[in-house]
Design brief:
Shape: elongated
Number of strands: 11
Helix content: 40-55%
Oligomer: single chain
Order of helices and strands: EHEHHEHEHHEHEHEHEHEHEHEHHHH
Distance between the termini: 39 Å
Number of helices: 16
Radius of gyration: 21 Å
Length: 328
């Protein structure tokens, strides 16, 4: 199966991990990224999207089985070609944020829409397939905290380290709230409480920060299915988070971890997690959203939309077992 991916961010770790897992299952990809440069302080303009449409239309004629539009703003350019079916994956901010009208207008014309959480499906108000982004359990796994602290250079001595794995410049992540909560907790404890903001590091190094920290703090205004929470679970890092996206579902039964409704609950939750000083039982919960499980679900979407099945080595073996005559 050959898939043309249209995306706003070709290096998004959760997307490239999913594509790699699908390649292992017989899917090949070509990626077209929206024109123009983008970072935490610069956004693409309408002309960048408009001048990408002809490239998508031309490329779509090169024998693909389907077009996968990654993020709501890429849906119109994927739909501009009329030859191939379209799968639309929504990431969260394209359902809850200012670009939501584009996602809502485009979704009915796509052959299948994939969202990251039940909350996103409810917000979109239409039938969707729910597939959270997967986490690579071979990369994100528990490691000794002292070793991880040495690798990331956290040698401040006694105290607690609270991980905020985003750029403070990303408004949707609500850094001011994280800073406010951490400051209150710092004033309540005798040992210092440090808020560690981490962004722009290689994704393979993120697990070191997860293992070095004492808690993950998530204060976002909105989320789809935050990867940082699932990665923290895989590393057994306790999580204190507001109830956004699928956080409540992901943290069900995970201890110690806290889902909070307001600043007071965030403060109490962070105090509780830090003073307990224990890792969580989140590794088992993370298995539900392993990259292998989520890739299999996305492959099923591709097969439905393209009307063809991929015969992987595993599926071939299972079929041979079913078809083999019994010897007894």
């Amino acid at each position: 199966m050959h898939v043309l991916t249209v995306t706003t961010y070709a290096d998004a770790p959760f997307m490239t991990q999913q594509m790699a897992a699908l390649e292992d299952r017989g899917v090949s990809f070509t990626t077209v990224s929206v024109a123009g440069e983008v970072d935490a302080d610069i956004s693409r303009g309408p002309t960048d999207y408009l001048r990408t449409i002809p490239e998508v239309v031309r490329e779509a004629g090169n024998g693909y089985d389907l077009i996968h539009a990654q993020y709501g703003l890429t849906a119109p350019m994927a739909l501009a070609q009329l030859r191939k079916p379209v799968v639309l994956s929504l990431w969260g901010s394209d359902v809850h944020g200012p670009v939501a009208p584009v996602s809502r207008a485009s979704a009915p014309f796509c052959d299948e829409v994939v969202v990251m959480s039940e909350r996103m499906r409810e917000s979109l108000g239409r039938d969707c397939t729910v597939i959270p982004d997967g986490v690579d359990l071979t990369k994100f796994r528990p490691e000794p905290q002292d070793c991880a602290r040495n690798r990331v250079g956290w040698d401040d001595g006694d105290g607690y380290d609270v991980l905020f794995p985003y750029s403070p410049a990303r408004d949707v992540k609500n850094y001011p709230r994280a800073k406010r909560v951490t400051t209150v907790v710092d004033n309540l404890l005798e040992c210092p409480v440090r808020l560690r903001t981490v962004s722009g590091v290689d994704h393979d190094a993120v697990s070191d920060y997860m293992n070095a920290a004492d808690a993950l703090l998530l204060t976002s205004h909105s989320e789809g299915s935050p990867n940082s929470v699932k990665e923290a679970l895989a590393c057994t890092l306790p999580v204190v988070a507001v109830d956004v996206g699928d956080v409540h579902e992901r943290l069900a039964g995970v201890d110690p971890s806290v889902v909070a409704a307001n600043d007071e609950e965030l403060v109490r939750g962070l105090l509780k997690v830090l003073t307990r000083g224990e890792r969580s039982n989140g590794r088992e919960a993370a298995r539900e959203v392993s990259i292998d499980r989520t890739a299999e679900r996305m492959l099923a979407v591709y097969e439905r939309v393209a009307g063809k099945a991929i015969e992987t080595e595993d599926s071939w073996t299972k079929r041979r077992v079913r078809e083999s005559p019994r010897l007894d």
